[in-house]
Amino acid sequence: MSNPPPEREGRLRLGPGFLVTAAFIGPGTVTAASSAGYQFGLELLWIIPLATLAAILLQEMAGRIGLVTDRPLGAALRLALPGQKSRTAFSALIFVAILFGNTAYQGGNLLGAVKGLDILSGGRVQTTLPVSLLVLTTFAIIAGFLLVTGSPKRVTRFLVSLVIIMSLLFLGIAFTVVPPLSEVSRGFTPRIPASGFSTALALFGTTIVPYNLFLYASLVRSKWSSAVAASQAIRESRIDIVLAVGLGGLVTASIMITGAAASSQNEFALDQLPVQLGHLLSPDVARLILGLGLVGAGLSSAITAPLAACYAAAGIFDWPTELKARQNRWVFGTVLIAGWAIGAIGILWRVRPEWAIIIAQAANGMILPVLALLLWWVASKRSILGDFVTGRFANIASFLVVATLSVIWLINLVGKLWSRFGGG
Q: What is the per-residue pLDDT across 353-406, written as a single tens digit (0 to 9) for each?
């Protein structure tokens, strides 16, 4: 049998970065960004490029570790720790936090998709409990079917198509209602309104999601084979993640602009956005765009959350990475079923999707500082990455970003827990 032809160095390969975009543009992003625009106009617009930059930095480090070590991210981080006890503690912490966080996110994702279909139907989906539960179950079955029967490449293609569609929808409505350039430029002046601190933190929290790091680091290993030079694979994966996450940041900004255009004196509600955009856009058109966008965001994230949980567990426990492996079916089945249960409870108790997302962000808040610092530490160790460690300037810059991000997440966690349980 003849050997396969070597990879052509001049051909640029884009990897699974758009899957990361599909994961972080979920119902939480739609809610947080539109709420920020609705309440504060474009005063918090400057946060989006900062959060996007931090997400690019962390994803690039995760991808580089996966490519150079040729291991899932969980395995690379675990083996970098000294001593069996620290490795065991790390494995337990990461697995519990990822499983709990992804399950909570899954409930919010499914509820967000139901809300999108409710907006499309003019409020007819959530008028009765049986219909709401049927729609919730249908979305859960679709996500489960794609994971059980599909290969990662097939799931990736489906999700990328959803990302492109919903990105075009939100970008289209933003360009339709875009405010004057002077108002947009003022949005890039760093300032936070007196009552906007928690909203500002939510914009960071909805952009930087820990499970995306495990997802991307695992998928780049199958995208760039050993036939591709490590330097070229790292360069191409960096371009891939900049383009994909950059698009996600642009879509998030578009959602904020949409919320700002709909601003009024009434309390923010996703259901009312199409009506409140009536002076700029036909309510039917706005309802179609927002509804489809929310369905696409919810469904794509409902697939990537269980998928990422599988890759995280596979790396931590040295399991097979194939979706059809028994261990992975157990993991994504747990996330799917528990997420559906959270969504069903939310529907029965009339819980808003944002509450489930808050719980998920609290779980992420416990893991992200540890995970971000571990990423920085491993990415700077020459004994692990050899010549592909970060340079001195990039190392200092990345440490400052990671440290700042860790502090922001911890403040976010404490603030949300205080407002929920101790703030009265």
A: 556 665 666 566 567 777 888 888 888 888 888 888 877 777 777 777 767 766
- In whole angstroms, what is the distance from residue 325 CA to residue 314 CA? 10
What confidence tier does 416 reach under pLDDT thresholds 50, 70, 90? low
Domain at 38, CATH number? 1.20.1740.10
Burial pattern 91-127, b for ≥16 Cβ within 10 A else e, equals beebbebbbbbbbbbbbbbbbbbbbbbbbbeeeebbe
Burial 275-311 (b: 16+ CB within 10 A, else e): ebbeeebeeeebbbbbbbbbbbbbbbbbbbbbbbbbb
Give residue for tokens 């899954």.
Answer: 106
10 inside domain: no
Residue 196: alpha-carbon gap to chain centroid: 22
C-alpha 99/C-alpha 104 separation (Å) is 9
The predicted-structure confidence for 188-225, as pLDDT tens digits, reads as follows: 888 888 777 778 877 877 788 888 888 898 888 778 87
Collect all residues with Cβ–Cβ distance below 8 Å to 100 and sequence separation of at least 6: 363
Residue 23 placed within a domain: yes
Q: Give the pLDDT mean for 231-239.
A: 90
9 found inside a domain: no
Are the C-beta atoms of residues 21 and 163 closer than 8 Å to each other?
Answer: yes
Count of domains observed in the chain:
1
> Residues 120, 288: contact at Cβ < 8 Å?
yes
pTM of the model as a whole = 0.84
Q: Would 5 be classed as within a structural domain? A: no
- Full residue range of the structural domain in which residue 177 is found: 17-422
Q: What pLDDT does residue 134 have?
A: 94
CA distances from 333 to 104, 132, 328 (A): 14, 22, 8
Residue 278 has pLDDT above 90, yes or no: no
Q: Quick check: 375 and 65 in contact, CB under 8 A? A: yes
